[in-house]
Amino acid sequence: MLSKESKMRDFPNLANRIYLNTAAEGIPPQSVLTALNQYGQDKLLGMDGRLLHEEQWRQVRAKFAQMIGLTVTDTGIASCSSEAYNLANLALRLKVNDEVIINDLDFPAGATPWMTDSSPANVKVWRSKDGELHTEDLIKLLSPKTRLVNTSLVSFHDGTRVDVNEISDAVRRHSGAMLAVDITQALGRIPLDLKKADLIISSTHKWLLGSHGGGLVGVSPERAEEWNVPAGGWFNIKNAFDSSRFESIKLKKGAESFMVGMPNYPAVYPVNAAFDYIMKIGVQEIDDHCKSLVSMCRSAIAELPVELLGAKNPKLQSGIIAFRHPNIEKIHAALYVENIHTMLHAGRMRISIHGYNDEADINRFLEVLASALASFPA
Predict the structure, then answer these.
(1) What CATH code is assigned to 4-23+283-375?
(2) Alpha-carbon distance 78 to 213, whole Å?
(3) pTM of the full predicted structure?
């Protein structure tokens, strides 16, 4: 997908290392760094730079909308996914005996807002079996009291994917709940079909290859009336500067209510450039390029003396592969010595394969991994 020349032009810092940790931090192309510098130049204009900032902000919303199949007015930008989820918690206005369903493959940002002391809802956990989330197990948890089901499209833990359409159909058949989907581990890496999601949230610093400080929000227009964040601020208030502002406030609705204050323009610029970079190549093209690498890598790891995690069904796999081993810390250190970057977390190693990876990266990783396993047997 990237030639040797284009890879070195766009990602010069990958010249002497193998980076397999995009699920934690994406490596930005040079155009993203240029955009970050452009923010600084525009900020030097003072108030005159505000129009340039706003144009970047509008473009991010438009490109995000295009990628998830919504209109611009159905999108918003918060400062991170955690902020977006906490604002979603406010918007739901949960009451005692309401129920929220999370799952044991979710990232904490989407699971913990409903578990705080200030949240009166009962939280149910949809538990995975053999690395997969089974819809029949979700159905057993659903009831008329269920207000929300939250899930990641791709699990940060082991890369397991879910079928959003299948989950949404089950939720609609068995309750009146809404479905929230975290696409942080998918945006910019796999094609998206999110028509049946009611709330969509994503960070921007992983597969999208943008900066920190972005929390993208999409709200289904069919449920926009129900996603109104009751928060103070000004950017989310229709009459923030009207003469009536001290009598009552009029909140914006849907995704626009998630934007409570001044946009984080230093993040908006690089995120805009990241969207341009990913969309120029094409998400489908990135996915096609990576599928063979993931398959090759996963098949080889399955033959090694490790415990491979995640879904066994190829349709439920993604660009993330995770496994365990009794000496996983020593193995991780051995890889790092060879300048091969992976993630060590909670007793497992996680590797993630993106468009800037190639067959040579995977072969070298497998070579060093096999050697490390031989040096540090279970």
Answers:
(1) 3.90.1150.10
(2) 8
(3) 0.96
